[in-house]
Specification:
alpha+beta; Butyryl-Coa Dehydrogenase, subunit A, domain 1; Butyryl-CoA Dehydrogenase, subunit A, domain 2; three-stranded mixed sheet
């Protein structure tokens, strides 16, 4: 257990058992394969099938739609346990986010068709928002979808799409009415197989998170059935995004706190073993004071994210607090890991040491899910 406060208040005996099972799964099916996945730039499809059998892909989706019927606590445990082994390859976060778009915003037919297949791992999901000229500014997207008798024809491109290489189902943010501003944005559920107008570009060469298949996507009259506009009505996409983004940002906060706790644990262990000038590093005042600061800030972050988890379970988590969690925890994650790298010295810069891998993997947390500058603007509007 790396949780700095011990046991979170939202944990229960049933969740303890679930965590034990997830921890065993992660130890056997995820942790040993990190380097191979970084080399091939994606996880194995078999992992998705095993995750489906384990019930962790859609842990908080109702069982009537093929999910595991748990709460956000179950899904948070999955994200924490992946974080505790340093996994940044298994794109389960994005997959769960798309499932929630369908659960909360989709038609009954869309839920019945796709949620069981996402829960089992038969389908891997991605969400395509960012474009070469539009990142956090979702109103600036240029990908279009024109309706015709046979369905929508989608044209444009997307970039930085996690799970893009392996995705079977992509929630694509498009302009269905280019002249209507935010009211002209829709989300379409695009199936990638046997869709000749859809093409996956190269897997992008990133600074970190190399095991995650982040891609460019291209649409050249790609086909989407008329019934696959999310929620069944055009023009609701921007409102749907604003409604569902807090879930994504809370997930990023959960993963960030797990990374902070792992960095602290690794650094305490290292500084106890490493000797300099005849004594353990942890016996030096500077080391002790740095680690004291890290533990204090990790504790504050843990208490805050636990409250966010509780509020998400209760359905009371709001956009402002989710934005606070996303920006503050990701900032703290990068700061903490940087401090820990310093205490590792030269070894902290070697990728064979987990802390170095954590360093390069963490930086993008402040960018994706909405850049932290955007998060601050959201918080500022609440003043």
């Amino acid at each position: 257990m790396m949780n700095v406060i011990g046991k979170s208040a939202w944990m229960t005996p049933e969740l303890d058992g679930f965590r034990d099972a997830v921890r065993r799964f992660v130890a056997s099916e995820v942790a040993p394969h990190q380097e191979r996945w970084r080399q091939q730039q994606h996880v194995d499809r078999e992992l998705w099938h095993k995750g489906g059998e384990m019930g962790i892909l859609c842990a908080d989706i109702p069982d009537q739609y093929g999910g595991s019927g748990g709460t956000f606590a179950h899904q948070a445990i999955v994200f924490e346990e992946l974080g505790y082994v340093g996994d940044m390859a298994f794109g389960i976060h994005v997959h769960a986010i798309v499932a929630h778009y369908i659960l909360n915003q989709g038609t009954e037919a869309q839920k019945q068709k796709y949620l069981p297949r996402l829960s089992s791992g038969e389908m891997i999901a991605a969400i395509a928002m960012s474009e070469p000229g539009a990142g956090s500014d979702l109103k600036g997207i240029r990908t279009t979808a024109v309706a015709g008798p046979e369905g929508y024809r989608v044209n444009g491109s997307k970039t930085f799409i996690s799970n893009g290489y392996m995705a079977d189902l992509i929630a694509v943010v498009v302009k269905t009415d280019p002249d209507a501003g935010a009211k002209g944005v829709s989300i379409l559920l695009l199936e990638t197989k046997e869709n000749p107008g859809f093409r996956v570009g190269r897997i992008l060469e990133k600074v970190g998170q190399k095991g995650q298949d982040t891609c460019e996507l291209f649409f050249d009259d790609a086909h989407v059935p008329l019934e696959n506009v999310l929620g069944g009505i055009e023009g609701k996409g921007f409102a749907q995004l604003m409604t569902e983004l807090p879930y994504e940002r809370t997930i990023l906060g959960v993963a960030g706190v797990a990374a902070i706790e792992r960095a602290l644990a690794l650094t305490v262990e290292y500084t106890r073993e490493r000797k300099a000038f005849g004594q353990a590093l942890i016996d030096m005042q500077n080391t002790r004071f740095v680690l004291a600061e890290v533990k204090t800030e990790a504790t504050v972050a843990r208490i805050f994210i636990d409250r966010c988890v509780e509020d998400t379970i209760a359905g009371t988590m709001d956009t402002v607090r989710a934005s606070m969690a996303k920006y503050w925890i990701s900032d703290l994650q990068c700061k903490t890991i940087d401090q820990c790298v310093q205490l590792f010295g030269g070894y902290g810069y070697m990728l064979e040491y987990p802390i170095a891998q954590m360093y390069v993997d963490a930086r993008v947390q402040r960018i994706y899910g909405g850049a932290n500058e955007i998060m601050k603007e959201i918080v500022a509007r609440s003043l």
